[in-house]
Specification:
Layout: H1 3-19, E1 26-34, E2 37-46, E3 51-61, E4 74-87, E5 90-101, E6 106-118, E7 124-136, E8 141-155, E9 160-169, E10 175-186, E11 189-196, E12 204-211
Antiparallel strand pairs: 1-2, 2-3, 3-4, 4-5, 5-6, 6-7, 7-8, 8-9, 9-10, 10-11, 11-12
């Protein structure tokens, strides 16, 4: 029996074993991406003031004959720790995450912080900032650091929001910026428009109409 067939059997059996334990602290989320490719997220979570979770993302794909496709395997270890504070006037969250690609020797550490609060009777504000350190041991790349921050002004009564974000990376020395606007047309229909690097020669814009269905 090939490795791929064994993996398929495990993907089929484990969901039924964990369905009865949906309320416990085990993370198990398998998915069939196509006829011959699978992915699963597994791990655990510990609820506390600082909620902690850790686990692995595993994926594979095969040919029609059952042999593994080259470079299709994924074995990513990850961990997260977050703390959320809620007050009548707003909410804040801070956390850290780490991920390690065990097959390709790369990894990343990210620190983030976000906050949302009531700015006035008709406006809400959201802010976020993060810093990420990435390393690739296989290609012997120097560790790169990327920092980003964003602000969003929201008018909840009309469903209109204005956003602006910036980012900078020491690997390329590039500075990027984005401005955007979003408008709720119907409860599940949104119109979004954004522009990247609006103050440079390589500016690029996009307009999207999004419809969301839940069932």
């Amino acid at each position: 029996m090939t490795t791929f067939k064994i993996a398929c059997i495990l993907f089929a059996i484990l969901p039924s074993l964990t369905a009865a334990r949906a309320d416990d602290l085990v993370i198990w989320s398998p998915a069939k991406l196509s006829d011959r490719s699978y992915k699963a997220t597994m791990g655990f979570r510990l609820p506390a003031e600082w909620e902690t979770s850790a686990g692995a993302d595993i994926a594979l794909a095969s040919t029609k004959g059952g042999a593994l496709l080259p470079d299709s395997e994924q074995a990513m270890l990850w961990g997260r720790i977050t703390r959320t504070s809620v007050t009548p006037a707003g909410q804040s969250q801070q956390g850290a995450s780490v991920s390690v690609d065990t097959l390709r020797g790369s990894g990343a550490l990210t620190l983030s912080r976000s906050r949302s609060w009531i700015l006035s009777d008709s406006l809400d504000m959201q802010s976020s900032r993060s810093i990420s350190v990435q390393y690739d041991a296989v290609e012997a790349r120097q560790a790169s650091v990327t920092a980003s921050q964003a602000l969003k002004l929201i008018h909840p009564w009309t469903g209109t929001s204005l956003s602006a974000g910036t980012g900078v990376s020491n690997a390329s020395g590039d500075f990027s910026s984005t401005v955007g606007v979003s408008q709720t047309i119907l409860p599940n229909l949104n119109l979004d428009a954004s522009m990247n690097n609006p103050f440079s020669g390589d500016e690029a814009g996009s307009v999207n109409l999004r419809y969301r269905v839940q069932w």
